[in-house]
Design a protein that fits this description.
The structure is a single chain. By secondary structure, the chain is mostly beta strands. Helix content is 13%, strand content 33%. The strands form two sheets. Strands 1-6-2-3-4-5 form a six-stranded antiparallel sheet, with no helix packed on it. Strands 10-9-8-7-11 form a five-stranded antiparallel sheet. Mean pLDDT is 81; it is low at 74-85 and 182-191.
């Protein structure tokens, strides 16, 4: 239920600060998320790596950029909307997709992949990859409208979904119906 009130540092438009003892969402290597409690951090160059207690004696080092901060400002109506199945671009994901999504630096994407994206003000939303820059970043959109702003996100900040071809076509139908030509996307948008 915390997915509507979670923000990720690399995707939001305000400063995110973490403190020791804070409950956070942590991407799991096999997909989905788990809760963790921040213990302490160490610096690796200019980046913070937190030791996150996952329960029992399990402690995992996690880069701060990968942590999900749970905001208390998520409203009940937002959280209730999470349970509604809304498998379409720009909508909140169904629980099954959140449970299996993989956020990892090793994720490999191609144009028109359907993905989960963090919203700038919290939560996750379905989107699609418009272009891949070859340097570990993708131009992504979470709107079907042509005037919807594209964002450049790092691969580790884009959720990889495993979907059937039929489901992918259902997602992308409205996008393709407006005549998107993915081979003619401007490289200027990536900068």
């Amino acid at each position: 239920n915390d997915f509507h009130g979670v923000v990720f540092q690399y995707a939001c438009d305000f400063k995110v600060v973490f403190d020791a003892g804070e409950l956070v969402l942590v991407p799991r290597s096999k997909g989905g998320f788990c809760y963790g409690v921040l213990e302490k951090f160490k610096m690796s160059g200019t980046k913070r790596i937190w030791n996150v207690a996952l329960g029992g004696a399990a402690v995992k080092p996690v880069p701060e950029l990968w942590l999900g901060k749970i905001l208390s400002s998520a409203t009940t109506s937002d959280r209730d909307a999470f349970s509604e199945p809304q498998r379409s671009i720009g909508r909140s994901p169904v629980f099954e997709d959140v449970k299996s999504v993989v956020f990892a630096a090793s994720n490999d994407f191609k144009a028109m992949d359907v993905v989960l994206l963090p919203r700038p003000r919290g939560g996750l939303v379905y989107g699609y990859v418009e272009d891949v820059d070859g340097n570990g970043h993708c131009l992504v959109r979470s709107h079907v409208r042509e005037d919807g702003r594209a964002r450049r996100l790092p691969n580790y900040g884009i959720g990889k979904l495993t979907l059937t071809q039929g489901v992918i076509q259902t997602f992308l139908g409205p996008v393709l119906s407006r005549g998107v030509n993915v081979s003619k996307i401007s490289r200027d948008e990536l900068e």
